[in-house]
Amino acid sequence: MDKIKVVIVDDTEETRNNIKTLLSFEKKIEVIGEAENGEEAIFITKEARPDIVLMDINMPVMDGIRATEEITMNVPETTVIIMSVQGEQEYLRKAMSAGAREFLNKPFSGEDLVRTLVKTYETEYKRREHSSLPKITEEVKSKVITVFSTKGGVGKTTIASNLAVSLARMTKKKVALVDLDLQFGDVAIMLNVSVKNTISDLIKEINQLDEELMDDYLVTHFSGVRVLPAPIKPEYAEYITSSHVEKIIKTLKESYHYVIIDTSASFHETVLTSLDMSDRIMLVSTLDLPTIKNVKSGLDVMESLHYSKEKISIILNKASEQFGIKYKDFENTLKHNIWAYVPEDSQTVITSANKGFPFVMTRTETKVAKAIIGMATEITAEKAVVEKEKSAFKKIFGF
Fold first, then answer.
1. Max CA pair span of the chain
2. Fewest beta carbons within 10 Å, which of 5, 69, 250, 322?
3. Are 160 and 259 contained in the same domain?
4. Are 85 and 40 part of one and the same domain?
5. Neighbouring-strand partners of residue 53
6. Contact assessment for residue 136 and residue 250, using Cβ atoms and an 8 Å cutoff
């Protein structure tokens, strides 16, 4: 059986952290999201489709009973286990009427928690196994996209994270997000995922690396994106080599339709490997002179490495002409057209990062979200055209 994917819902952060700690020792269980009220729980469950939601009863905004009713009705494949300090029969009756399958009285031990989760999951798994059809194996046509800049602080991680989430939601395909900013990577914080293992732990088993082992090291965000976090300590970065990165990307390409890579602002050997193996390089810039100078230098390096212009897409982040530099002047300086414009919206971006909810999910009406979603749309459209052309070629020549 696959890992049991769990979402924890409780209005107390300490309680959520305690439950995550109890479950962190279980390899078969993975916490893929958390919420502090019923409304957030419904939103995450609809997006993530977890196996089990651990739901508190008494919460602000929307209580656990109402949230359970909504989840049971709209996401029937997800099972709800109610948690409460209230052990009375009335609460138990209400919880079961709402659709909950089990009831846990607080405080509970780690043993009780794990036993209840596993038992509930196994019961549901057997039920689904009886009614499910055989799976058809699909050939994976992978696309590797590296988000890069030769200047820090231009929004690479924001773009990489939200782009990965957009692709996962839009295509319903498998998307991996790799944090190759090996010293100061922030992808895990940006997406608020619980980090058990990182890329520095993975390389200890690099010689045995295959799809199954890779799966053990990837963390699941509730959007469905699988994340390979950067090392916890900056000094661990020196142990990761270009050959490690090459093996990781090759392994991910075997089972993920999109591999999105966030990088540091340098031409370190690990970054160069990522750039070499990419189908597309998204080069991020802003409209200030120091950044433009550094990006121009980066383009010169890429030209010396014989990267084609078609491989490089310029993204102008925090795009605005109000500070004196025109878009046309920018393009003339770089001798490269701007592929995508992402407008300035600090409030949306910072709030999103602090809460761990990507703005392409929660603030879809904003211009900044529409810009990222537009980029994802363009990428999927291009991939569809390429695959159609390859298919036609095979039919004509019989390959």
1. 73
2. 322
3. yes
4. yes
5. 7, 80
6. no
Torsion-angle region of 49 (φ positive above 0: left; ψ -120 to 50: alpha; else: beta): left
- Two tokens at 352? 């999103």
Q: Are 360 and 169 in contact (CB under 8 A)?
A: yes
Structure tokens at 1: 């059986």
116 and 155 housed in the same domain: no
Low-confidence ranges of the chain (pLDDT < 70): 1, 86-89, 128-139, 383-399
CATH code of residue 280: 3.40.50.300
Contacts of 333 (CB under 8 A, 6+ apart): 292, 296
Does residue 177 share a domain with residue 29?
no
Measured between alpha carbons, how far is residue 178 from residues 144, 157, 269 in Å?
Answer: 11, 11, 16
In whole angstroms, give the CA distance from residue 61 to residue 391.
Answer: 51
Query: How high is the pLDDT of residue 140?
Result: 73
**Contact call for residues 280 and 143 (beta carbons, < 8 A):** yes
Number of folded domains in the chain? 2
Q: Scan for tokens 């661990």, then name that residue.
A: 236
335-367 burial, b at 16+ Cβ within 10 Å, e below that, comes to ebebebbbebbeebbeebbeebbbbbbbbeebe
Q: pLDDT digit string (tens) for 26-83?
A: 888 999 999 999 999 999 999 889 999 999 988 989 998 999 999 988 898 899 999 8
The answer to whether position 136 is within a domain reads no
- If asked whether residues 183 and 332 sit together in one domain, one would say yes
Domain enclosing residue 337, as ranges: 143-397
C-alpha dihedral, 307 to 310 to 312 to 318, nearest 10°: 160
Q: Are 72 and 80 in contact (CB under 8 A)?
A: yes
Domain boundary at 131, 158, 187, which? 131
Domain shared by 336 and 202, yes or no: yes
Half-sphere exposure for 389 (CA within 13 Å, toward CB): 6
Q: What is the token pair recorded at 26?
A: 């279980």
Which of 84, 107, 131 is the endpoint of a domain?
131
Residue 351 lies in a domain: yes
Neighbour order of strands in the sheet with 143-148: 219-220, 226-228, 175-180, 258-263, 143-148, 280-285, 312-319, 338-343
Q: Please give the model's pTM, rounded to 2 decimal places.
A: 0.76
